[in-house]
Design brief:
The complex is a heterodimer of chains A (277) and B (146). Chain A is mainly alpha-helical and 277 residues long. Helices cover 65% and strands 3% of the residues of chain A. Chain B is 82% helix and 0% strand.
Amino acid sequence: MTTLPLSHPVSPSLNLTRMWNDAPAFTGLSLFIAQTAVPLMAAAMLDQRIFLDAPIWQKPLQFHLALATYTLTLAFFARYLPAGMTGRNWRIYAGVVCFCVLAELVWVGGAATFGIASHFNTDDVVMGTIYGFMGVFAVILTSASAVMGIAIWRNQTTGLAPALHLSIALGLVLTFILTLVAAGTLSSMPGHHVGTPVTGAALPVLGWSREVGDLRVAHFFATHALHVIPLVGLAAAGLGAVIGKRLVWAASAAFAALVAATMWQAFQGQPFLPWLG
Amino acid sequence: MTPETLFQIVNPVAMLGWLALIAAPLAPRLTDRIAGLVIPLFLALAYSALILVHWSEAEGGYGSLPDVMALLSDPDIALAGWVHYLGFDLFVGAWAVRTARAERIPHLLVLPHLALIFLFGPAGFLTFHAMAAAFRLRAANTGQPA
């Protein structure tokens, strides 16, 4: 039996060694965040406090899960960065991104410890200032997806099928743009709910309101563009470069429309998919 | 010597150990000896003396939470408990610095964990271990240390 050289590896491997080599800081940080979720789970079991209609440790746990996923995803896509890019400047930038990720987690976890709000907390000068800084940190940590997306876009030597190549680059860039819009809008509001009455009915795990508009829905989808669009690209990779790329563009447009639609829906005071939950 | 006086002595002594740990890369072996041995031994000595003198007269015991609380309501025993924290936390801090050096974890990355061990001992032990585990996994996966 002969082995055929695959010019376009369709399914990239989830090899951890690869991620360590391509993005040691993101990989290590992801594992660290995942592990430090364990004491938070223990705290959640001990703590009966409810904050804004949700168990108080739900939000820190969601942030650990979300940022562990985000950093691991970046580590996975780092293999498609141009060879010369991961030098000293890149390592400094990655270090700054990691710092911002950790700062967000300390802030959100610390707020839970003290039973106060993290986001939207402008109760006093100190918390208001911290909230402002955390907004800047959030933009910096999300910028990593844009920086990587653009670099991967320009890299002509990824060896990927054109549709998959485009989908990875576009997904990363879209995560930044859509998150900036969705989360920026969210943070300009007094809170994540639009409408009344809020009695606390919410979807499990995600925590989205079942009774009023919830701006976090759009943020969730926006931030997951870097997962959804590449999956479309993976499916479209076998359809040839032209059709495949068109499909990726169409899916990206549709996905951006979905984010816009969930945002519009929230502003109407409507819960996401009312029949769910 | 009153418990208050001894309290005023043990705190800066422990602090000296923590300052040494922060600056550990400047003099690794000296730091190991001071923060990992000499100061913990000094604090162990203070603890042992306090227990030898005051244990018999103290109320309470180890059997139940109310017993432990009664035990710690005695100022001398509470001080002994505090010295126990100081000594063992510093010992763990010195262990973290040594472990990081042996496994080539940058000292800068150890500092936040040292702060946590200093303030909330076991929590810092937990986070340091989480970080060290990530570095170990990396070494195992890539066949090279950090």
